[in-house]
Structure formats: C-alpha cells, structure tokens
Request: fold
Amino acid sequence: MTIVPRVPDETRVKHLELLQVTIGRFGTNSFLVKGWAMAVNGGLVTVAAGGAGWAVAVIALMMTWGFWLLDTYYLEQERLFRSLYDRSLTPDPGQVPLFSMDVGRYAQSVPWHVVAMSRTMRLFYGTFALADVAAALFLFFMS
Reply:
C-alpha cells in the first residue's frame, strides 16, 4: 500500500492566495482599460466635433474596438484563473499540481467570443461604438 504524502494546508492556502492575487490583477487591468477607453473615446469625439471631422470619429470607433478586444482578453484570463481557483479547491490536492498557473485546460470552457459579447461588455463598448458611428455619420453629412 502506497501512502500519498498530504500537502500541508499552509501550502495550499498560499497557492490559493497566489491565484486570488492574479485574479485581482486581471480585474484591475480590466477596470483601467475601461477608464482609458472612456477618456480616449471622449477626447477623440470632442476633437472630431470641434472641427477635425468625421475621420477622427472613425478613429474613435477603431480605438473602441481595440479597447473592447483588450478588455476581453483581461476578462477571459480572469475567468480562466477563476476556473483554476475553483478546481484548486477540490478536496483531492492531486487534481491541480501545487502552485500551478496553467489555465490551458480551461480554455474550452471560457471562449473569448462569449466574454466579448457578455451583457456588460456589449452595454459598455456598444454604447461607445454607437456614439462613434452616430458622430461620424453626423459629421460626414454635415460637412
């Protein structure tokens, strides 16, 4: 009969803390991206309306899409690490190697397009995209 060495609870707790810090970091990055998206988008639309023209509003739309994709990446990573965290809580410590940060096995359960089209992402970035398109069309037809 083989005896499986039991991992000290302190070590498992440290692993869970490391995962929590990583999840928090991705959440913070997502928050910062949203702030930058608001500032850049507002600035570009203001410049466009101030006389720069519809092309700047189109650039604002492209920047919105870029921020949307970047935020999607951070939220996808956060969800992947949450899956790893949940799996690390199982009573069998052999399920997840100690101090493992490999989230590759959870990629199928968190597809990026589902994250990109979540309700909050559509409301936040979709509003900016619609405002950018409206500004570009208004400025195009008024020039």
